[in-house]
Amino acid sequence: MAAIYHLFLYFLIPLVPLSLLSILALIVRPRPIRIPIKSRHVFVTGGSSGIGLALAQQAATEGARVSILARSAGKLDEAKQSIKLATGVEVATYSADVRDYDAVSKAIEESGPIDVLIVNQGVFVAKELVEHSPEDVKFTIDVNLIGSFNVIKAALPAMKARKDRGPASITLVSSQAGQVGIYGYAAYSASKFGLQGLAQALQQEVIADDIHVTLIFPPDTDTPGFEEEQKSRPEVTAIIAASSGSMKTEQVAKKAMDGIKAGKFTVACNFEGFLLSLATTGMSPQRSFWLAFLEVITAGPIRLTALFFQWDWYKAIEKWSKTKTKKESGNVS
Ligand SMILES: NC(=O)c1ccc[n+]([C@@H]2O[C@H](COP(=O)([O-])OP(=O)(O)OC[C@H]3O[C@@H](n4cnc5c(N)ncnc54)[C@H](OP(=O)(O)O)[C@@H]3O)[C@@H](O)[C@H]2O)c1
């Protein structure tokens, strides 16, 4: 009798995860989707440098018609030549500042209806808020957040109106600083956190038009913008950012493009980023019932890991501020 009881229990144990998986398979929304890239029009803002340039090149390699937008005509031309050299594809270039809605609208109208819109432009300076001028804060929010609204608003009517062109994507390049606030990034984090709200609300508004929203969360990536930022990065910012490692531009572009094609709402670029995504997923939509399963069963342990990270970061801040105080009072050379 006891043997039958144990057998029954062994039979029951896998039933719990299997039932959870079945429920999740029924309820995850939006439904899984594939976004084709070949022969589509891919429009990349900030496509003249760094991650945007690598994404534009990746799209060209995959057979897309590519347009890139940025401010500097010279940098756009250099990017066009380098993509031509690497892929043989001639990309269209548009010189406009994303803060200027009319200029962005004109460029997007000229380029023709977009299938995959990658809103990637961004500025970042790591500085304690007390050192940041109100103008710098406004500039960061204007380019990263308001600029993204401008680009999406300009492209959306034609994207919604497209007929029989297959599923479309609106992708926003955020940052790990858009998932967790990081020392030195008050303005930058605020601008990137804003993209999360924009993306979640927008996905609900455009799902009926077969448009799928993706948010990319790169870690430190070796781009010209990053190289510039390194020059003035506070020491504590560097210590905290080191906990997520750094990546090559092409690696980030590949991860991002794979995520766009898979229609993922959230795209992490490395393992630490994946853990961060699990920890910060909150009310984000999830298309994969496997990932939803992982999110549900790891919620407690992941929260514990997040608390360990915070402990580690605050320890680094305490240590750094003690050393700074000692230095200032002349006790340490
Ligand atoms: N690199 C990293 O470590 C890292 C990490 C996480 C997230 N990110 C995000 O990834 C994105 C790309 O960063 P990146 O490192 O590749 O930067 P980047 O090398 O500095 O390139 C930025 C691109 O955006 C364009 N841009 C800047 N301001 C603009 C404006 N007002 N209007 C139109 N275009 C503008 C730039 O061209 P012009 O200057 O000619 O306009 C350039 O093409 C950003 O959103 C950034 O926040 C980067």
Topology of this protein?
Layout: H1 2-12, H2 15-27, E1 41-45, H3 50-61, E2 65-70, H4 73-87, E3 92-95, H5 101-111, E4 116-119, H6 134-161, E5 168-173, H7 186-206, E6 211-217, E7 220-221, H8 224-230, H9 235-242, E8 246-247, H10 249-261, E9 266-268, H11 271-280, H12 289-328
Parallel strand pairs: 1-2, 1-4, 2-3, 4-5, 5-6, 6-9, 7-8
Helix pairs in contact: 2-12, 3-4, 3-10, 5-6, 6-7, 9-12, 11-12
The structure holds NADP nicotinamide-adenine-dinucleotide phosphate.
NADP nicotinamide-adenine-dinucleotide phosphate binds at residues 45-46, 48-52, 70-72, 75, 97-99, 120-124, 143, 147, 173, 175, 218, 220-221, 223-226.
How would you sum up this structure in a few lines?
The chain has about 325 residues and is of the alpha/beta class.
Would you mind describing this structure in some detail?
With 333 residues, the protein is an alpha/beta fold. The chain has a single domain, classed as Rossmann fold (3-Layer(aba) Sandwich), CATH 3.40.50. 57% of the residues lie in helices and 12% in strands. The strands form 2 sheets. Strands 3-2-1-4-5-6-9 form a 7-stranded parallel beta sheet, with helices on both faces. The protein has a two-stranded parallel sheet with strand order 7-8. Helix 2 (15-27) crosses helix 12, helix 3 crosses helix 10 and helix 5 (101-111) runs parallel beside helix 6 (134-161). Residues 45-46, 48-52, 70-72, 75, 97-99, 120-124, 143, 147, 173, 175, 218, 220-221, 223-226 line the site of NADP nicotinamide-adenine-dinucleotide phosphate. NADP nicotinamide-adenine-dinucleotide phosphate (NAP) binds at residues 45-46, 48-52, 70-72, 75, 97-99, 120-124, 143, 147, 173, 175, 218, 220-221, 223-226. InterPro entries: KDSR-like, KR_dom, NAD(P)-bd_dom_sf, Sc_DH/Rdtase_CS, SDR_fam. Its EC number is 1.1.1.102.
